[in-house]
Structures are given as structure tokens and as C-alpha cells.
UniProtKB/TrEMBL annotation:
Pfam families: DinB (PF05163). It comes from the Bacteria. Keywords: Metal-binding. This is DinB family protein. Belongs to the DinB family. InterPro entries: DinB (IPR007837), DinB/YfiT-like (IPR034660). The lineage of its organism: Bacteria, Pseudomonadati, Bacteroidota, Cytophagia, Cytophagales.
Length: 158
């Protein structure tokens, strides 16, 4: 196996999770809309706000990677939801499903040998697919960890 393919394989493992922590499917299962909208004293966000932020950011990164006419979002306003809770369970479930789908889309981009991991995007500021894949993995892991801490504080995670 060549180094390029080994790098792709390692990126995919990182995006899937399950090496240093459980896969995202396990970490985000069984969250209820009620739980997702509960506030914790001294924390500025709810589980819903973290999940929706993860989804928005993930799809922004994917849009950047796939669209040469990409338009930057305004930080932080466009990246964080105003609502503290999902409208209902269906909205929450859709958000979580879209996070999983978005990660699979990034995996497909990384898997495709036609996509150069190290070529800078013409519409960016030095970003590469490798950097964006690492960003997705790091951002997802970071905020998923926060979701788990919130669930523990709410008593809904063991």
C-alpha cells in the first residue's frame, strides 16, 4: 500500500471514530428532544445547540470542499442556532442523521483517489482536503465530547 492510500485510510478511521472513543452512532444515540433542550447552570449552550452547530459547521466545510463559488458564513452568528431546543424529536433526529450523513460525505471525498489530499483549494486561503478532513474529525470529536459531558451532568449518560 502506498503512503497516500495509508493516509486516506487513517483519515477515514479518524472520521469514523471508534479508535480513541466510541463511533458517533453510539455517542449520539437515544438523545431525546427534551434532554437536548435542557440548560445546565454555568454553561452557555444546550445539547441541541451543540448538535446543530456541529451540523451547520460540517455542511459549511463540505460546501467549501465541493463548491468553488463558496461564500464564507459570518462567524459566529451563522454557525450557532438561536433556539436552545429542537422543535421536536423529528427535528433532533434529522439533525443527528445529517451529521452522520455529512461525515460519510467527507469520507467519500477522502476515499476518492481523484481528490488530491494536498492540493490547495483555488477559492481558499491555503486549505487542502487533508486539512478540512482533519478539521471535521477534530471539530466533531470536540463537540461530541461536550455533548457527553452535558448528558452526564443531566444524568442521561453512564
Amino acid at each position: 500500500m502506498n503512503q497516500n492510500q495509508e493516509i486516506r485510510n487513517q483519515l477515514i478511521k479518524l472520521l469514523e471514530g471508534g479508535i480513541a472513543y466510541q463511533p458517533i452512532e453510539e455517542l449520539l444515540k437515544d438523545i431525546t428532544a427534551d434532554e437536548a433542550g435542557k440548560s445546565i447552570s454555568h454553561l452557555p449552550y444546550t445539547i441541541w445547540q451543540l448538535l446543530e452547530h456541529m451540523r451547520i459547521t460540517l455542511y459549511d466545510i463540505l460546501e467549501f470542499c465541493q463548491n468553488p463559488d463558496y461564500q464564507y458564513l459570518k462567524w459566529p452568528d451563522d454557525y450557532w442556532p438561536k433556539e436552545v431546543a429542537p422543535a421536536d424529536q423529528e427535528t433532533l433526529d434529522k439533525c443527528i442523521a445529517e451529521i452522520k450523513t455529512g461525515i460519510q460525505t467527507m469520507i467519500k471525498l477522502v476515499q476518492d483517489p481523484a481528490n488530491d489530499l494536498f492540493k490547495t483549494f483555488s477559492h481558499g486561503e491555503g486549505q487542502t482536503l487533508m486539512r478540512e478532513a482533519l478539521l471535521v474529525a477534530e471539530h466533531t470529536a470536540y463537540h461530541t465530547g461536550e455533548v457527553i459531558v452535558l448528558r452526564r451532568l443531566l444524568g442521561t449518560w453512564e
